[in-house]
């Protein structure tokens, strides 16, 4: 029994490793461009993503004090923006697991919606590491 549980565990961790994607900086820039992010704000978006998720698509944050969690490349919060279950809902009308896929279409749409309402101030990663700070160099991307 223990062995079976162990094998299942290994299989799941391998599967999730295959699924997980870490963008390079320029890979991220290309992906954001193809999602139609504003070129004038590109370095802010790259800085935000680098500080929020380390450019990983499948990151789920540790629970915040109020029990909410942050999901994916943009670390989007389940208190307001995505439903924690299998039923889409909340601000972006999505399930939180839709924010963890390698295809960043859903996550990008949701991030833009958050930006429209709160600008970059919605993200602590941006406020603490990017606002009034030197932004990442993307001149070779
Ligand atoms: C929950 O915690 C997160 C992170 O600390 C914060 O962004 C969010 O505003 C909090 N929500 C409420 C309703 O307190
Ligand atoms: C999301 O789910 C986790 C685990 O089931 C739970 O601990 C957390 O409180 C939930 N978040 C919200 C905002 O309901
Ligand atoms: C989230 O999912 C649960 C379970 O399916 C559902 O009862 C709830 O209405 C959903 N919340 C929102 C805001 O859509
Ligand atoms: C939310 O998305 C579902 C499909 O995932 C759709 O059927 C529903 O109409 C949407 N609700 C709103 C309020 O946009
Ligand atoms: C913690 C973290 O990832 N910090 C990074 C925030 O963004 C700047 C600019 O890209 C990086 O230099 C930091 O390492």
Automatic annotation (TrEMBL):
Reactions the enzyme catalyzes: Hydrolysis of (1->4)-beta-linkages between N-acetylmuramic acid and N-acetyl-D-glucosamine residues in a peptidoglycan and between N-acetyl-D-glucosamine residues in chitodextrins
CDD domains recorded: LYZ_C_invert (cd16899)
Superkingdom to which the source organism belongs: Eukaryota
Gene3D superfamilies in alphabetical order: 1.10.530.10
Keywords: Antimicrobial, Bacteriolytic enzyme, Disulfide bond, Glycosidase, Hydrolase, Signal
SUPFAM superfamilies per the UniProt record, alphabetical: Lysozyme-like
Signal in keyword set: yes
Pfam families on file: Lys
Signal peptide: 1-20
GO molecular function list: lysozyme activity
UniProt EC number: 3.2.1.17
PROSITE patterns xrefs: GLYCOSYL_HYDROL_F22_1 (PS00128), GLYCOSYL_HYDROL_F22_2 (PS51348)
Annotated ranges, domain Glycosyl hydrolases family 22 (GH22): 92-110
Family as reported in the entry's similarity comment: Belongs to the glycosyl hydrolase 22 family.
Protein's name according to its UniProt entry: Lysozyme
Annotated source species: Galleria mellonella
Chain's gene name: LOC113510919
